[in-house]
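Figure S7 source data.
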Amino acid sequence: MSELHKFIFDGLPVRGMVVRLTDTWTEILRRRASNSTTGAYAAPVREMLGEMVAAATLMQSNIKFDGSLILQVFGDGPVKLAVVEVQPDLALRATATVTAQVEPAASLSEMVNVSNQGRCAITLDPNTKFPGQQPYQGVVPLFDDHGKPIEKVSAVLEHYMLQSEQLDTTLVLAADENVAAGLLIQRLPMQGTANLAGSMVAKENEDQIGLNEHYNRIAILASSLKREELLTLDVETILHRLFWEEQITRFEPLEGASAPRFACNCSRERVGKMIVGLGREEAESILSEREDIEVGCEFCGVQYRFDPVDAAQLFTAPTRAVAGGSDPH
Ligand SMILES: [Zn+2]
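Tokens for the predicted zinc ion complex:
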């Protein structure tokens, strides 16, 4: 089952989190695999998207923000877009748009950054907006300060956190066909407000980037975590192996009902309504050319199919039956 664990290093300005997504991740893969138009993800796409799902979950849990966090990678290779959306309660969904063959051992650059046009964007979209308010968005390229392509999702996001949040962050991410998992270690920002004292604190915070010895020691320990260990070991074992010499305080883990979980608001009923909206003539015209009307959800990849009998029913049934049917009114 999926779980997320938070902890702090006692007396040090460092916090950490581990996430392991199992059922949540396999549901995302199952939906995609069931889509007859797209088919399942190629292994390198699966790995990239899984790492993004783990990272976005960690980032959403790391902020106090009433809105969705959307992590996107826009590509100029065969993968045009990979996107993950995580709600404040850690309900999440993810998908990728793949327009050409991805080689079995394709690197991040080969998938999304062929001519260095790839970008990574993080959007915070508030649930309640005041009039005219735009979502906050930060964008970073998929190459480093020297113009060298970055080949790991974790390195892209570490770069982002440093550039736009001025936070030292270490991320270890991994995904396969069963698990998407991640470890995040972050130096805690010093608290400050927009007064004189606050700006001095901000300056002090900036001066600490890369220099805090406690953070650096813990970051080195975290970075020693291998992909295989992250995928196969339970959280207790991972934390003990890495940080057995450190004093850690753990928080109540998010598991069971409060764990990160898959959720998409698409449904067969909604798609049915959409087809009714197209009109009978359009629906019949599609069915004259193919066996089914197939509609894929652009947010989770699942595909809804309506054969001629289903479609005929849509147009003969009363509207409320299309909407779900059990409404007593
Ligand atoms: Zn969906």
